[in-house]
Amino acid sequence: MEEEKNAARKKCLNKETRKNREEYEEEKKIAPKSCRRKKREMWNKKIEEIKGANIKKNVRKFYKEVKEMSKEYQQQNIVYKDDKWKILTKAKNILLRWQQYFQCLLENDSQTQEKNEKENENIGELEDIDKPTYEEMIEVISKMKNGKTPGIDNITLELIKNGRTELLQRIFDLLLQI
Questions:
Q1: Alpha-carbon distance 175 to 133, whole Å?
Q2: 80 neighbors 95 (Cβ within 8 angstroms)
Q3: pLDDT at 5
Q4: For residue 160, is it within any domain?
Q5: 14 partner at 20 to 30 Å CA-CA among 34, 57, 125, 128?
Q6: 149 and 120 in a common domain
Q7: Are residues 61 and 99 in the same domain?
Q8: 88 shares its domain with 108
Q9: Residues 19 and 42 in one domain
């Protein structure tokens, strides 16, 4: 609907006739109604998702969605400051500050590349790091929190924690190969 309103406006601006003006005014009336309807549909869909989570006893998702839905809108004020932390108000000054900022980033990037090249030359000089022990691995695994999302391999932490010594030994062998 918004696109149709914009097209009618352009048509009216290009050639101002009574017909074009009436079409634009009509589209101007319809567009807000369409936006309200779409917003209402979005909220109804969100409510249905929350109901579904409640019916399926998915408590975590239910409370997360309710919390997200009950948040109030907070406008974010963007404040631009110069290198001396003074607030910039004029558009020209803001653009100049962005230009300075990106120039600084580019200079730092070239310096970082030179530094990385020097470090890569010295990799062979690094000392060997002590390999972790089986007990250290078990200690780290036991301290990890349950209920976290699994990684790309879809292996949950609970599965690893409740695994037998054979699973833990295989994980330790993989760790040593890294």
A1: 10
A2: no
A3: 78
A4: yes
A5: 34
A6: no
A7: no
A8: yes
A9: yes
- Write down the pLDDT at residue 115: 72
Contact present, 5 and 31 (Cβ < 8 Å): yes
3-state secondary structure of 155: coil
Q: Are residues 52 and 86 in the same domain?
A: no
Concatenating the DSSP letter of every residue in the chain gives: -HHHHHHHHHHHHHS--HHHHHHHHHHHHHHHHHHHHHHHHHHHHHHHHHHHHHHTT-HHHHHHHHHHHHPPP-PPPP-EE-TT-PEE-SHHHHHHHHHHHHHHHHHHHHHHHHHHHHHHHTGGGPPPPPPPPHHHHHHHHHHSPSSPPP-TT---HHHHHT--HHHHHHHHHHHHH-
How many other CB atoms are there within 10 angstroms of residue 137's CB atom? 16
Q: Which two tokens stand for residue 104?
A: 């600084």
Same domain, 11 and 46: yes
Name the DSSP class of 146.
S
SS3 at position 147: coil
- Residues 27 and 166: their CA atoms lie apart, in Å, by 69
**Residue 75 forms part of a structural domain:** no
pLDDT tens profile 37-91? 988 999 899 889 888 888 888 888 888 888 888 877 777 777 888 888 888 888 8
Residues 34 and 14 in one domain: yes
